[in-house]
Design goal:
By secondary structure, this protein is of the alpha+beta class. The protein has 2 domains: 29 residues; 102 residues, no CATH class. Helices cover 22% and strands 26% of the residues. A hairpin with a 2-residue loop joins strand 1 and strand 2. The protein is globular, with a radius of gyration of 23 Å. The chain is built from 3 helices and 8 strands.
């Protein structure tokens, strides 16, 4: 009569367990490395403005469920969250008046539709901040309230949305 082979757990085979754990760690590590590649972005022309560093210190670690990501720039005027990345650029050129202006939590933003999302640029504040929101996060303005709270630290100038 044949005896049925005994099933042994991985725990009873240390070398096999170690190999399985190593393989799992390599796969997980590969995913982490792919997900942690820095977002490629150039700082804005006036990103070195000291006010940009002050604002950067107030930026949240998350936007909703989106985690803050590393960027290719060491400038305090650059930040990113999520994948695809929502990008913050402090020190962009001041926009002129536009009918495409909206108030989000007391901060005026000029918006420009892009092929892959929307660019929002503060209006009437110096330094100006631009936030690029991919279409994947539509409706895009809903991502602005936590960033408006940061920008509110910059005094509103005489220009407002009308």
């Amino acid at each position: 009569m044949h005896r049925r082979p005994r099933l042994r757990s991985l725990a009873s085979r240390p070398a096999l367990l170690a190999g399985a754990l190593l393989a799992l760690a390599l796969v997980a590590g590969g995913w982490l490395l792919l997900g942690s590649r820095p977002v490629q972005v150039r700082p804005a022309p006036a990103a070195a403005d000291p006010a940009c560093a002050t604002l950067a210190a107030r930026l949240p670690p998350t936007l909703g469920a989106l985690q803050r990501r590393a960027t290719s720039s060491s400038s305090a005027g650059v930040a990113a969250w999520g994948d695809p990345a929502i990008i913050w650029l402090c020190g962009v050129p001041q926009p002129g008046p536009s009918p495409n202006c909206l108030d989000v939590s007391g901060v005026d933003w000029i918006f420009t539709q892009l092929s892959d999302g929307t660019a929002f640029t503060t209006f009437g504040r110096d330094p100006a901040v631009q936030v690029l929101v991919p279409k994947a996060y539509a409706p895009e303005p809903l991502r602005l309230p936590p960033l408006s709270a940061v920008v509110a630290a910059v005094p509103q100038g005489p220009h407002r949305c009308t």
